[in-house]
Amino acid sequence: MTELNGCEARKVKVMGPYTFSIGDTSDLSDYVRGGIAMQVKQPKALNFKSLGKSLTDPEYLMTDFAKFDRPAQLHLGFQALHNYVQQNGTPPKPRSQDDADKLVAVAKELNAACPDSAKVAEMDENLMKQLAFSAQGDLSPMNAFIGGVTAQEVMKACSGKFHPIVQWLYFDALECLPEENADSDLTEESCKPQNSRYDSQIAVFGADFQKKLEAQNYFLVGAGAIGCELLKNFAMMGLSCGEGGMVTVTDMDIIEKSNLNRQFLFRSWDVGKFKSDTAAAAVKKMNPDMNITAHQNRVGPETENIYHDEFFEALDGVANALDNVDARMYQDRRCVYYRKPLLESGTLGTKGNVQVVLPYLTESYSSSQDPPEKSIPICTLKNFPNAIEHTLQWARDEFEGLFKQPAENANLYITDPKFMERTIKLPGVQPVEVLEAVKRALVDDRPAKFEECVKWARLHWQQQYHNQIKQLLYNFPADQLTTSGAPFWSGPKRCPHPLVFDINNKTHMDYVVSGANLLAQCYSLKGSEDRKYITDLLNKLTVPEFKPRSGVKIDVTDAEAQASASSCDDDQLETVRNSLPAPESFKGSQMSPLEFEKDDDTNFHMDFIVAASNLRAENYDITPADRHKSKLIAGKIIPAIATTTSLITGLVCLELYKIVSGAKKLETYKNGFVNLALPFFGFSEPIAAPSNKYYDKEFTLWDRFEVQGVQNGNEMTLKEFIDYFQNEHKLEITMLSQGVSMIYSFFMPKSKLDERLSMKMSEAVMKVSKKKIKSHVKALVLEICCNDEEGEDVEVPYVRYTLR
């Protein structure tokens, strides 16, 4: 079917998750092997009704299927509101019953005159009144949501990329209003203007609610894209802007150039500053009344002396603006322990989600998890890449393996007397690999001048893009067959071809120039960007001819790669160990490991990554990537755009309104899921906290046993602790642990058991863990396994054992 090579795009039909049909192939030659299909998205023509026609014959994009009839009601309501403003010159006054009744009358009149396609069968008068009550309101979170959607639609219209909304989108968050007695609690008096910057918010929620907002104490973890938007919303809402209020924001990151397009509180002159400090200063300018403290701490066990019991107990809630799952799960555990509400959110390009975690009501963030991301198989990276992502990851590994890890290990060999002892204990083939890399770095490849760096870079080019490929094809020729008779080079395996160095090829020279300069940096030698000078050096260089060797083992599967990595040749290890000169001979010759930095265009890091990746892509006939795309993938930049971030943080702050109001019903809260590209909007109630039971007592992840360990200055012993549970809860403790330390188990040797039982609880914990209990720790978290009175295992909550 060679006719398909380079043909025009053909329409395909998807037959299943792994197959598609390309249509009639009767006029094509026979299929032999291989072939890689590339998806070509075709333009789609869309037609929209005019405003006049769509007003009477509307199409809606649903945002919440729990409010199935809401779009039609709001379509009528907003038309009635426009008519009301035309008639009266101003929207209805906040919480004015008379004005609300007038709006209802206008809506009834409009509905009666509507054609059947736009008429609502039964008008929701209460909804119309709520629209009237809040018509003069203007909420920052709602602006963030609508603004994000609108901005993305404008970009769709300009670019033709992604599917636009067809054709009306209505969104409401009436659940933010008080759950009960809203009409009696919110009056004309409480919602009237206060000559305040928050009057448009007071018009919706009242003056008392505004005071509550201003007195909130919140912890914001992260000051990146989501963190910046949240801080802006907090400032506009007046969160923590009054007496007793405080927002504490922490972020250990420094502002990088690549942050500026989506982290809007930062400017070019802020590059190199701490994100938290800069963001705090920016929102302080937006609202000088905001009480905000900026930290540069990582959240984790190492900062629990800062974010300790007193800190968390004073909080009203926590908002996460994190970019990794581990930190999210850690914060989630802290919020469950201290029983604090958690507002969790995340974005990925046009996709985003919001999750609200509420004490005693919902499951926690960690209760359900996405499957782990698939990593690229080792054999694919080493020998069988088929996508530019593979070659870029390979190039990143090359950078680390050439300019960072050998230098770090060489320095340890020189300075750390125990380095050799630790290295030999490493598993599998690692000792040989580490020591060979150290020997190359300190002896074999150590340059004395820049000219030797150029020679090294050229020979390394030859090894990677010519010699290794020739060896691979020697082992597995292009016409190689598998044991089943199928072509070896088929499916995802692309048959490579060796490259021939061309001094006039820019990518070839980019590799040599960047590689030589990076090696020079490792040895503190002066580099050069003079390509004529480097070209002259290359012209004088003789490159040895490569001859493939027989007997070279190349791993084809991950299992083979893992087997190779798990075995170590002791003779080879001893040889390389003995060939290393004594560390003392290298005193004063320490190297400079290079830390990959994607945003500095003068340091040769991205020059090397782009060249290394695209040369390997050329080996395997993979479409190369430009510098921008390479930086995105190799720098592991999580795609983030301002539109999605704005929308998501708007949804977060709508949930914050509900938390501050003290809403207790699960159905009041909403988890949100959005994809602006499709577009898709989905909202659901948070999942209730799952419950367990022992005897007749139900408990959830929010419950625990509270044990006061110290009374009248005396701390209970381990035996007293066990007896306490037997007497108070009719539970026999069979095992007791604290963290990874087993404090007690029924199968312990009697001598050890007798010793432990007489110990005070804190002494037992310190003895087993071999760690002192830090002064800021007021309580220990203990896990227990128990039997009930019938001797059956029962699941029980954890124990909070108070020490101080």
Automatic annotation (TrEMBL):
GO CC annotations on file: cytoplasm; nucleus
- Protein keywords: ATP-binding, Ligase, Nucleotide-binding, Ubl conjugation pathway
| Residue numbers annotated as active site | 379
User: Which processes are annotated in GO (biological process)?
Assistant: protein neddylation
Residue ranges annotated for the Ubiquitin-activating enzyme E1 C-terminal domain, each copy included: 669-799
Pfam families attached to this UniProt entry: E1_4HB, E1_FCCH, E1_UFD, ThiF, UBA_E1_SCCH
InterPro entries per UniProt:
E1_4HB, E1_FCCH, ThiF/MoeB/HesA, ThiF_NAD_FAD-bd, Ub-activating_enz_E1_C, UBA_E1_C_sf, UBA_E1_SCCH, Ubi_acti_E1_SCCH
Q: Which reaction does it catalyse?
A: ATP + ubiquitin + [E1 ubiquitin-activating enzyme]-L-cysteine = AMP + diphosphate + S-ubiquitinyl-[E1 ubiquitin-activating enzyme]-L-cysteine
Pathway assignment reads:
Protein modification; protein ubiquitination
Q: Which residues form a coiled coil?
A: none
Report the top EC class in one word. ligase
Q: What is the E.C. number?
A: 6.2.1.45
GO MF, one term, reads: NEDD8 activating enzyme activity
Entry's SUPFAM superfamilies?
Answer: Activating enzymes of the ubiquitin-like proteins
Q: Which NCBIfam families match?
A: Ube1 (TIGR01408)
| Similarity annotation | Belongs to the ubiquitin-activating E1 family.
Protein name from the UniProt record: E1 ubiquitin-activating enzyme
What is the species of this protein? Answer: Branchiostoma lanceolatum
